[in-house]
Amino acid sequence: MMLRRGFILFLPRLVGLLVVACCSMSIVYMLACTPKGDNQQLALPRVHSPTVKEGYEAILQEREEQHRNYIISLKKQIAQLKAELQGRTEQLKNMQNQYPDPLDIQLDRSKPEKAQANLLAFLRSQVDKAEVHSGVKLSTEYAAVPFESFTLQKVYQLETGLTRHPEEKPVRKDKRDELIEVIELAVGSLNKPDGVSKAKPRVYTASDFVEGIYRTEKNKGTLYELTFKGDAKHQFKKIVLFRPFGPVMKVKNEDVNMADTLINVIVPLAKRASKFRQFMQNFREMGIQQDGRIHLTVVYFGKDQMNEVKSILENTSKSANFKNFTFIQLNEEFSRGKGLDVGARFWKGNNVVLFFCDVDIYFTAEFLNSCRLNTQPGKKVFYPVLFSQYNPSIIYGHHDSIPSLEQQLIIKKETGFWRDFGFGMTCQYRSDFINIGGFDLDIKGWGGEDVHLYRKYLHSNLMVIRTPVRGLFHLWHEKQCLDELTPEQYKMCMQSKAMNEASHGQLGMLVFKQEIETHLHRQKLSSKKT
């Protein structure tokens, strides 16, 4: 009890001692932490000192100066960051103006001029990506996007499937409206005053339209090339249009004068004198009489039937007063590639259009113009897709007689097909053929040499025009696949032979001929019983 009372009496004294100790420590801390001046530490003014007011003012003034300097430093750093950010923003704007991103092209109503400029820049970049001004290198013969051709009335298309026809009127409204729009736009462009000529300009109409080709690349747009009649014979107007998934843009408007453009038709041949006689009838009518700007080069292999072939050629020369032909004889095994290569290199005149042809080909004067219009030295070569005739004895087997050759040459699903797997008939300038390296002369016999040349053009920067044409026909003939062909050549030959006979439906009728006759016989018996 005495100890507890002593502790209670001592507790207030202990608390007082602790308070005094805390106050002492506070005074010592204030003295130690008082800010210093430039050369000495400022002392805390004593309460009763006469300089107490001046001391506190000095301390506050120094603290204010320190804060002011700190703020000035921060402002300098902020200004530097703003300047750097502004510079980066200008660089980004310059890059966007130079290479507009199609995703960023928006119709900004607040800045319509800028939006229109960005849109035009994007559309022109689409033109640059497409094969409008020059070709692009392609890896294989299947990478080329083929053109399709059209006139005012018909469209000539490759991908027919089982329902569409190789030649048909544009049934789908979107396709019909598209082609009408393109022709009307081209006519309007031709009739637009150039502001230079003072003579009364000619008024073009849709009836002046000769033919056009077009193709669509799904990541770029649709390219159109339209040909119109010119001011004189053998002169044409050519309009190139491009639809970059937007408005059609006029790319080119040029005059094309083909009056002096000569075509050298090169035909390699061995035997087959009767086929050559038929070919010369077509050549005389279309090449000599209707076109007139043509040369014929025959490269003959061996001597069998050579005199008969030369006689046919000389008789045509005399009767048609035609001197523009060359006959070259080679004493070696037939090679189509070798014959065409020799014929092309034999030419010594000016640069000329070469048409590589076969003896079982029929062409029109309109095709010869297409050959000229779709070739350009150093820029374009022409690979037409010809229409291959089926076996007339199968097609017209149910008729009393087979029609004449001219009557057989109609483009229908039942009469033939677009030979889109063949690359043998081609038009190009001689300079391009020589520069590309010509044919692979190691290939012998049938097939293969044309594909190798086609691939060479695809691997170059030349534009390859691949389109079906209405004036080039492969006449049916029985195909012989020789045992000495390589396995690959023999397979290609047999595939070609099967394709040449008849359409899918006609071959089916032959395969099931016995079943059909049995059914008809049963029907006849059934009708007699009733």
Automatic annotation (TrEMBL):
Which Gene3D superfamilies does the protein's record reference? Spore Coat Polysaccharide Biosynthesis Protein SpsA, Chain A
Query: Where does the UniProt entry say this protein principally localizes?
Result: Golgi
What compartments host this protein? Golgi apparatus, Golgi stack membrane
Q: Does the keyword Endoplasmic reticulum apply?
A: no
One Gene Ontology BP term is: chondroitin sulfate proteoglycan biosynthetic process
Q: Keyword annotations for this protein?
A: Coiled coil, Glycoprotein, Golgi apparatus, Membrane, Metal-binding, Signal-anchor, Transferase, Transmembrane, Transmembrane helix
User: What Enzyme Commission number(s) apply to this enzyme?
Assistant: 2.4.1.-
Coiled-coil regions, chain positions: 64-98
User: According to the UniProt record, what class of enzyme is this?
Assistant: transferase
UniProt GO molecular function: glucuronosyl-N-acetylgalactosaminyl-proteoglycan 4-beta-N-acetylgalactosaminyltransferase activity; glucuronylgalactosylproteoglycan 4-beta-N-acetylgalactosaminyltransferase activity; metal ion binding
Q: Which family does it belong to?
A: Belongs to the chondroitin N-acetylgalactosaminyltransferase family.
Q: What is this protein called?
A: Hexosyltransferase
Provenance organism: Ploceus nigricollis
